[in-house]
Design goal:
The protein is mainly alpha-helical. The protein is built from 6 helices and 4 strands; from the N terminus they run αβααβααββα. Helix 2 packs across helix 3. The protein is globular. The protein binds a DNA duplex through helix 2, helix 3, strand 2 and helix 4.
Length: 103
DNA sequence: TGCGTGACTAGCC
DNA sequence: AGGCTAGCCACGC
C-alpha cells in the first residue's frame, strides 16, 4: 500500500522523456494522491538514492528547481536540465509550459 | 503513540 | 502583483 506509493512515483518519474519536465502535483494526481504532492517530493528525495530517477526533471508547480539544493548542493540540477535543452533562469524554468510533460 | 518536518499547492493579505 | 499562511499526507524520532 504505502510502499506502492513510492513505486508509483518512481514509475511516473521514470517515464519523463528527455528534455521534458513535470511537477510533483501532476505526478501525485496521476497516482491518485493530488494532495500528497509533498510526499512525492519526499519520495524523490529517497528515490534519487535508490532508483535511477531523473529527479532533475521534476520541479514544483511554478517551475522552480526547489530540489536543487537537495541534489548535491550545487547547480548540478540546473546543469542537467540545461543539458537537455531547457532554459533556466534564477533556478526557474523560463518556458516551463513548453517543456512541461503531462503524465 | 504522538509531535515535528518537508523536493508542495492553493488561497488570503 | 508579490509574499505569507494554512492544509495536506507520509515518514522519522
Amino acid at each position: 500500500m504505502n510502499n506502492d506509493f513510492f513505486q508509483r512515483v518512481y514509475e511516473v518519474a521514470r517515464q519523463i522523456p528527455y528534455g521534458k519536465v513535470t511537477t510533483y502535483g501532476l505526478i501525485a494526481k496521476k497516482i491518485g494522491a493530488e494532495r500528497s504532492a509533498r510526499i512525492v517530493g519526499y519520495a524523490m528525495n529517497v528515490s534519487e538514492a535508490f532508483e535511477d530517477i531523473p529527479a532533475h526533471r521534476v520541479v514544483n508547480r511554478k517551475g522552480v528547481l526547489t530540489g536543487k539544493l537537495h541534489f548535491d548542493g550545487t547547480n548540478l540540477m540546473q546543469q542537467l536540465l540545461e543539458s537537455e535543452g531547457i532554459e533556466i533562469e534564477n533556478n526557474t524554468i523560463k518556458n516551463l509550459n513548453d517543456h512541461l510533460w503531462f503524465p
